[in-house]
Write a structure and sequence with these properties.
Blueprint: E1 7-11, H1 14-17, E2 25-42, E3 53-71, H2 76-87, E4 93-102, E5 107-115, H3 128-137, E6 139-140, E7 143-144, H4 145-158, H5 164-177
Antiparallel strand pairs: 1-3, 2-3, 2-4, 4-5, 6-7
Length: 186
Amino acid sequence: MSESQDLWVFGYGSLMWRPGFPYLRSAQAVLAGYHRSFCVYSHVWRGTVEKPGLVLGLTPGGSCRGVAFRVAEADRAEVIEYLHDRELGTYAYLPLTLPVDLADGTSVPAYCFVADTSHPQYAGDLPREEAVAIIMEASGKGGLNRDYLINTVREIDSHGYGEPQLRELLAEVARRTGIIEQGGGI
């Protein structure tokens, strides 16, 4: 198969640290026109309908650094089905193919999940105090909401992306829950 027939998938949250599908390679990538934000209420994986969690979505404006995964053409249908089961359970995201720029300077069309701003689970840009309160208390099929935050920030940091807004959110959750000692690390 030629590389041009392969599927690229853009990960900006849990897909970065737990893709869950076979891929040929991964590369650091930038998606222009969208930024990463804790803007989607989770009713399944990191919360419940009664006590929603808060997860990342791509919202318009700015840019987002993440990871692009190249999937073999032979695995395309199976991977898309897996991603739809994982990401579209409550349809709070829109699956779109958007151009991403890879670290080597090439641009590829990548399958992305963008927050649906018209969906009832779209939280928008919540004040940090409200986001912290939600993340500290929520849990779903995927575990504690704060573990999602911790794992995502660790992965973002491992790539050197430095997202101060997410770091500040994590620092406040960590302070309130005692996850880290004062002046210590996660």
